[in-house]
DNA sequence: GTCTATATGGGGATAGAC
DNA sequence: GTCTATCCCCATATAGAC
């Protein structure tokens, strides 16, 4: 982790991450990727074995699977858990906006690549569903449909704001990550009908 | 509107809507579109002048611009307005899930086609922003950042549920449209910190 | 590991017959 | 309005030299 020049393999990964985020997988050619990376076209085949595998390697490299694993080891109350998931997801999306965008794209397009994402992210959303259920049973929350509640939380956390179309509506100075997390926690917990005891 | 066979132009439009929704614009070829439409490849050029223009024509044909125009003629209080926008948007997305998906894709991918969408939809979100602002001034709502509040409402309404990746987490029987609208209104108004007087 | 050169297919688009 | 046949370009991928 010195100032050494990155090798071609990593440069290709970084270029692919950037371009996939901007233009989508299908909208990006390996030629573009290699231009951006300052690498030769043939190196995609050599290092990864094709464009599809570059996509897979992206998630191997940059998706925070260990962090999710650690999260699952913890014990927590529903309210704590919901707040923690909100904070962690927002923090990750802020730390790697490109991977977040790629993820968002895969959610709305049925692609032969979805499983890379599903495998890694579904456990977290399933956990969230469990927390909501438990929280409602314990009387912490009061909302109607569990599925619908889950969707609201996901929507509040995942709705993309660093995309051009959304940015063009916003007018205020961007908040700090911590401020965004806090506002999201407040909105979500209120929305779920949390009985006001801690907040 | 009889049982007359649709002409090739319309068949192409419908096929394109379906395929763009499933696979994205770049992931769909005009050959695929014409196969699906039972039409000849050359007809895309003849009727539209290219694939890009098929996309534009899709919004000319199916986007409910008149309905939005009518909405703008009405006078309404912030709470009423927010509830109405929630209801209208959810109703439209349910009535044309394919166009909704295409819209969602355009939001997360910077494409040379975004302006078709922006031109039509931004006025509505700007109006919503105004309603939130007015509502907060009047004391109907209490929330922090206006931009952030706007994003929460948009996320709650727009988060896609009829996509495979999201569906695989859900477990309950789907709600009726009216039930979804009601739950969304409750979640959003609670989240915005509405002072409980009408609801 | 990295390059050049090339193979092979599919992409969008159109000329011109019907 | 609709078809066939064709053009040309750009896509991914690889063989083989360095």
Question: What would you say this structure looks like, in words?
Answer:
The structure is a homodimer of 199-residue chains. The first copy, chain A, has helices spanning 8-23, 30-37, 42-47, 51-62, 65-73, 78-95, 97-108, 114-137, 146-158, 164-167, 177-191. In chain A, 69% of the residues lie in helices and 0% in strands. The first copy, chain A, is elongated and about 60 Å long. Chain A is built from eleven helices and no strands. The model of chain A has no long low-confidence stretch (mean pLDDT 95). With 199 residues, chain A is mostly helical. The first copy, chain A, starts with 7 loop residues before the first helix and ends in an 8-residue tail after the last helix. At the A-B interface, helix 7, helix 8, helix 9, helix 10 and helix 11 of A face helix 7, helix 8, helix 9, helix 10 and helix 11 of B. Chain A binds a DNA duplex (18 and 18 nucleotides) through helix 3.
